[in-house]
Amino acid sequence: MAYCIDCGKKISRYFSRCNAYYDGLVCKDCDDKRVAKVIAEEVIESKRIGSKDLIDIFLETFRIYGKYCLKLCCLLAILLVCELLKEMISDGVNIPMAIAYSLGFIIIYTFVEGMIIYAVSEQYFKQEINISRAYHFALGKIKKLIIVNIEASIIIGIISITIIGIPLAIYFLISWSLRSQAILLEDLESRDALLRSESLINGNWWRIAGIAILLIIIGSVLGRIPLAGDVIKSAFTFSVLPIASTLLYYYLRVTKEGYSLGNLAGELHIVV
Fold it and tell me: For the whole model, what pTM was predicted?
């Protein structure tokens, strides 16, 4: 007699299908489970994330925003406080306060953006947004995210100082818009994330710029709402832009690389 290496049940050594894949004998029930797991993994690995066109991505952005508006507002609460602080210091020019605000805003926005990226990614597995999972996932990459956002902001800011440099600054603003996704999901370093974002967007710059401009216009229209316009505009912009950029990131990886649910599950550390 022998024992199943999975469940410990006594089995006949001639009954189990022992081969190089298994490292030992298993009973029929455990063997069936292993085979089913292998088949499921192969199906997941081969199944691509739905390659949607840009109109579908635009509509999907608002579907996710509408469905999880309250949870997203909870994530954005700190950012809205920052916007109020900005209004308080905007009356007088206070350079130290302006610098402190800018750094604080980048740090907080980066963290919230990371949580939103993870939350949107979970939607491909039909899971509800889990704030705790999103928090811990973003926290693990927060240092890299802060560094790449500060670097990108400084470079774009310096380039845009002159009128001649503004078009180049706009180019990099769009080309580097997927840097956070590259760090969170592909675990790249700062410089590699910028190059990765630019590589993915290459050939799709104008279409992605068009979506960004359209979303900004909608945000500006919302900002004209009496009394609460600025708050609504900020809540909309800070949540919709990360949602749209994440959907675009997956769209580009699917169309260019044949990206699959198996790839996504591995990057999110989700067991499927």
Answer: 0.71
Closest CA to 29 of 10, 53, 1: 10
Cα 27 to Cα 40, 115, 199: the distances in Å are: 20, 43, 50
Residues 186 and 222 in one domain: yes
Q: How many domains does the chain have?
A: 2
CB 260 within 8 A of CB 46: yes
Q: Quick one: 166 and 241 in the same domain? A: yes
Position of tokens 């960004």? Answer: 212
Q: pLDDT tens, 61-117?
A: 888 877 777 666 666 666 556 555 555 555 555 666 666 766 777 777 788 888 888
Residue 215 lies in domain: 51-268
On whether both 41 and 70 belong to a single domain, the answer is no
List the structure tokens of 10.
């006594």
Q: Are residues 39 and 57 in the same domain?
A: no
pLDDT at 174: 93
Q: Hey, is 63 helix, strand or coil? A: helix
Q: Are residues 62 and 40 in the same domain?
A: no
